[in-house]
Amino acid sequence: MSGEARVARAFGRAFGRVGGALVTAGRRVVGVGCVVALIPVVAAVVVVVTVLGAPVSVAGRGAWRATRMGVFALVYLVVDLVGVLAAGGQFLRAPLPGAAARERRARGAYRLLGRLLRVLRRVAGRLFRLEVEVVPALPAGGRRPDVPLVVLVRHAGLGDSFLLLQMLLTEAGLLPCTVLKGMLRADPCLDVLLGRVPHCFLPPARGTAGEAVAGLAAGLRAPEALVIFPEGGNFTPGRHRRAVARLHRLGRHRQAARAARLRYVLPPRDTGSLAALAAAPDADVVFVAHAGLDVIASPRAAWSFLPLRRPVRATWWRVPAADVPRGDAARSEWLMAQWERVDRWAAQQAVPATPHA
Predict the structure, then answer these.
(1) What is the C-alpha to C-alpha distance for residues 207 and 211, in angstroms, rounded to an integer?
(2) In 10 A of CB 299, how many CB atoms?
């Protein structure tokens, strides 16, 4: 490569970094502005719906659903703003570049994220009667501390990803490196805090999803846990039909037949999962299934099923790295078998209103 070409490439990389930083800063400024503007609006809406709905709720011993939802939205916005301000304070305490400052900011981001999510969970417990039962119980100090984890989670219901992150951070003592949808960048607090810790938004700004997940997994070290939702979205019958049709289009007819027999979960999109397993071959794999939030599949369902009538139930199992099959083909079959186990468990927990194929 000529000297001119090297200079041009270096200039291009520098220009890309500056451009990316400007886009990120602009997105965060707009996001914070929206949060600030929405707080008084939502507060006013809460007052209005509470006053207007009081006669009906009092006379019929109603659930005050509109008030509950409005209050939670208001708390979420306030927590988001507080989180951004606290993150700014953390940055001022370690503003310099370098590995030591980045590590300090990452530790602070994890602590702050855990506290904020704990507040939201407590508020959800009061407003929506959110309770969680985990069987078997999360280990207290019994985990292999020298082994990182790849955590594959069922995606079902409103807020399940936030609930899982809170449990990993504050109850399991893990540091989640999460694969998330790019739309969550619109939340300024998440954007800032996750920007300081290992993470991956999909679709990535550069390269493929598999490359982005592999890059995240390659640097995995205990007590970190790469968290991925292989289904890519919450279950609906329509998504299930499209997922089966997609497998047929790809010529994976055997897996399509197995996917068609799944009733409560989507077949796993194994690109990201296989990339993570290949890039972190020494990591143990944890599968997490949960039920209870899956009835909240739409705004209409949220209105019908909040407050919750039963606890959210969760289960998990761990596969040591040595027991994970070798090779993408074998791992793809193994992943589908694990998801069939998730489906059987979800069927045992389902109520008549649970969406299913």
Answers:
(1) 6
(2) 10
What is the model's pTM? 0.89
Closest CA to 353 of 277, 272, 284, 297: 297
* 271-297 tens-digit pLDDT: 999 999 999 999 999 999 999 999 998
Assess whether pLDDT exceeds 70 at residue 143.
Answer: no
Query: What is the DSSP-derived secondary structure letter of residue 204?
Result: -
149 DSSP β-pair partners: 225, 284
Check: CB of residue 62 under 8 Å from CB of residue 87. no
Integer CA distances (angstroms), 305 to 38, 59, 297, 351, in order: 26, 20, 10, 12
CB atoms within 10 A of CB 11: 10
Tell me what pLDDT residue 60 has. Answer: 54
Helix/strand/coil for 257: helix
% helix / strand / coil in the chain, to the nearest 5? 60, 10, 30
Other residues' Cβ atoms within 10 Å of the Cβ of residue 282 = 12
H-only helix segments in 129-229: 160-170, 188-194, 209-218
Q: What is the dihedral of CA 80, 81, 87, 91, to 10 degrees?
A: 150
Mean pLDDT, the chain, as a whole number? 89
Look at residue 3 and tell me whether its pLDDT is greater than 60.
Answer: no
* Residues 253, 190 contacting (CB under 8 angstroms): no
In the numeric block, which tokens belong to residue 349? Answer: 């927990």
Supply the pLDDT for residue 97. Answer: 79
User: Environment class of residue 4 by beta-carbon count within 10 Å: exposed (0-12), middle (13-18) or buried (19+)?
Assistant: exposed
Of 10-24, 99-113, 161-175, minimum mean pLDDT range = 10-24
Phi, psi dihedral angles at 219 (to 5 degrees):
-95, 15
